[in-house]
Amino acid sequence: MSEIEISEIQRPDPGLCAALSRIGSAVVAGALYRMGIRNAAICGPRPMTPGACVAGPALTLQFMPKREDLYGDSEYAEPEKQLHRHALYRAKPGDVVVVDARANMRSGVFGEMMLTFLKGRGGAGIVVDGCIRDFAAARTLGLGLWLRGTTPNFHTQTDLMPFAVNVPVACGDALVLPGDIVVADDDGAIVVPASRASAVVADAGEHAEWEDFSRLRLSQGGDLRVYYPLSDQGRREYEAWKAAQVHGQKPRAVRRRRR
């Protein structure tokens, strides 16, 4: 069989991925919105491994409607022609496999064995606009799983076939390019264009910091109108609080005003 040619992705600085993971999908979504990117959230796939939080470059896999002259019915026939395997062959530590499975709820694009291989390669997780099978075992592997659902069927048992690897895909109505950074946690998954990742970290990091301050003040009984979003007064207090963190001073509790 001739060698299948698949493009390699350009992976970002791991430090950017680590920073985005700490920030989280919700704050990242806000930063992207402020940059004019309105459709970054992947809609449909749900978090299926509570507490998992990943941020890593996207390996993309595209499924298409099955046509029998191009793809047979057997699960194990000519396995090296099965392109969903080739997506996993290219996985490196921290990668996230993103699958456009056409929101199909009948075909399980991966099962336990394939996902065990991905975990062994150091993969961080998968985002599938469709289903997997062997879920009971898959959820114990330590991979983050964002899925539309589960099914007992294997990948070509019904009406899909894997068609392309590391091409632009539409996953949950969001465009994902190979090498984009996917940030996924209990709020869902979001796509950060690789070219915007540094700017997102800078914007979202500052936003997350003032939210830490606001959260502290609100937990101490502070006024929502002052601390979320920050009013002029709240902003002055935040700047003083931030300066105190730099100099190792303990922040003071907010004083409740008498009414």
Could you explain how this protein is built, in words?
With 259 residues, the chain is an alpha/beta fold. It folds into two domains: 14-196, 3-Layer(bba) Sandwich (Glucose Oxidase, domain 1); 199-246, no CATH class. The chain is 32% helix and 22% strand. The chain is built from eight helices and eleven strands. It has helices at residues 14-23, 25-34, 83-89, 112-120, 135-138, 197-219, 224-227, 232-246, and strands at 41-42, 46-47, 54-65, 96-100, 125-132, 144-150, 160-165, 169-171, 174-176, 181-185, 188-192. The strands form two sheets. Strands 1, 2, 3, 4, 5, 6, 7, 10 and 11 form a nine-stranded mixed sheet that branches. A hairpin with a 2-residue loop joins β10 (181-185) and β11. α2 (25-34) crosses α6. It is elongated, with a radius of gyration of 22 Å. The relative contact order is 0.20. Mean pLDDT is 90; it is low at 251-259.
Short description:
The chain is of the alpha/beta class and 259 residues long. Helices cover 32% and strands 22% of the residues.
Topology:
Layout: H1 14-23, H2 25-34, E1 41-42, E2 46-47, E3 54-65, H3 83-89, E4 96-100, H4 112-120, E5 125-132, H5 135-138, E6 144-150, E7 160-165, E8 169-171, E9 174-176, E10 181-185, E11 188-192, H6 197-219, H7 224-227, H8 232-246
Helix pairs in contact: 1-6, 2-6
State the distance separating the first and last CA atoms.
Answer: 80 Å
Please give the count of helices. 8
CATH superfamily of the largest domain: Ribonuclease E inhibitor RraA/RraA-like
Instruction: Profile the largest sheet.
Output: 9 strands, mixed
